[in-house]
Design brief:
179 residues; alpha+beta
């Protein structure tokens, strides 16, 4: 995958879902990664780990988007005001969500194509965050409560009928005592 193109983005694995975070320089990509990692240490996520910060190798594989850090940046996260920090990292992850920070196209109730994007020919869920908005609550809600695109079809026992292309998954587990 060393020949795969790189894009200006960061990726964090949050539970079982990798989130690719895009935005202009200074928009808070690294900060969002750090906040999600901290959410796993003392918040609603049970696991979060850095995949890549600032530059990400992306490649389509069997209809999924695989993200890896460039070798020279693996495990490095820039924390504004502190500098470059070495963190544990995942060598690769399959991206489930794209978060666009400082998105001029952000709307209160997005619909249709505003909720999707395509990277390297792979369709992905998209969350557009308006300039000045704190992305952490929206991202946590998205990755802990919304269905996974790769889950198996639901059964009538869970309250939803099975229909073609109707997919659902249980939300990521919360820590004990959290609702």
């Amino acid at each position: 995958m060393s020949d795969a193109p790189t894009i200006h983005a960061s990726v964090v694995l949050a539970g079982a879902r990798a989130i690719l975070i895009r935005g202009p320089a200074g928009s808070g990509k690294s900060r969002l990664v750090l906040n999600l990692i901290q959410s796993a240490a003392n918040g609603p996520l049970i696991f979060a780990r850095l995949v890549a910060d600032d530059r990400v190798h992306v490649q389509a594989a069997h209809g999924r988007l695989v993200a890896r850090p460039p070798a020279a940046l693996a495990g490095l996260l820039e924390v504004r005001g502190i500098g470059i920090q070495q963190l544990p990292f995942e060598p690769m992850a399959v991206v489930s969500w794209v978060v666009d920070l400082d998105a001029a196209t952000s709307t209160r109730m997005p619909e249709g194509t505003a909720t999707r994007t395509v990277i390297a020919g792979v369709g992905l869920r998209r969350l557009a965050v308006a300039p000045g908005c704190d992305p952490v609550p929206m991202v946590l809600a998205a990755v802990t409560a919304l269905p996974s695109s790769s889950a198996a079809a639901c059964s009538p026992e869970n309250g939803r009928p099975v229909q073609p292309d109707d997919r659902c998954a249980a939300p990521l587990p919360l820590r004990a005592g959290q609702a």
